[in-house]
Amino acid sequence: MVCDTITYHPTLTKLINFLETNNGRDKLLRTLQYVTKLLAYYLLRTGSSVNHYYLVRRLQDLFTLSRKPLRALKPLKHLKALSVTVDNELGDGYTKLFESVKQASYSLYYGFDTVHWLKLLGLLRNRNGKLLVKVEQVCSFFWLVALVSGLLQNVRQLRVSYLRKQELLKELASDDDQNPLDKRGNLEKQKETLDTQNVQLYRAKRDLVIHALNSLVAINGLSQKRVNNGVAGGAGVITSILQLQDLWNATSTTESSVL
To answer: Which domain of life is it from (predicted)?
Structure first.
């Protein structure tokens, strides 16, 4: 039946599983947040109706506020990642340094983001301290530090993966004198490793683009004079779509158990 076909369709199951996750809902709301930010900038620049502009701004604020509780406990995740990174003694030193700074900055960013959420709810007042007055700028600052660290980490990963790829290509070219059986086994292993390096190169390039565009959004949060809302909104939409794609591809198509 048509109803059964729709009910048990893998895409519907995947969509349900996607929306059941915090990250899925957060990235979907993030996309809407930056779409409305970009639209508000467009309405302002084109001299559209003031009512339309304030309606879109109100929607943007609602989407922004709706994301806050979904991220309230994220500092724990990044603190754990920081601890794991610091304990890792086998990785590249530069990558470890950049990853440590990134995770520490994300922990502070999400921590202050929770403070900002409480401020928006009216639970914290500006009289409690000067830091509270500029908590949004503080969030943007630590986010920018995390993004810059991520950028440097991506550049380092690109270099390491590229050099490793070149070594593998040289090894493949110098295996002509080996025993045919040994050569075949080594060739398969080297090709698998080469495929892994290609995937890592692609991932590093994609992450570099996301970090670079998100940096524009973070700079906009620090000062709209440096990056206007139109650029920040456009960058936010692009990165949101890229991150939605990653989450969607990682979402399972199997039925999740109902408790």
So the answer is: Eukaryota
Residue span of the structural domain in which 128 resides: 2-250
State the distance between the two ends of the chain, measured CA to CA, in whole angstroms. 28
Confidence of residue 15 (pLDDT cuts 50, 70, 90): confident
Q: What angle do CA 63, 64, 68 make, to 5 degrees?
A: 115
Domain assignment of residue 25, yes or no = yes
255 within some domain: no
Q: Helices 135-173 and 93-120, interaxial angle, to 10°? A: 150
The token pair at 166 is: 């070149």
Total count of domains within the chain:
1
Would you say residue 54 lies in a domain? yes
Q: Which residues of 67-76 are buried (b: 16+ CB within 10 A; e: fewer)?
A: bbebbeebbe
**10 Å Cβ neighbour count for 83?**
12
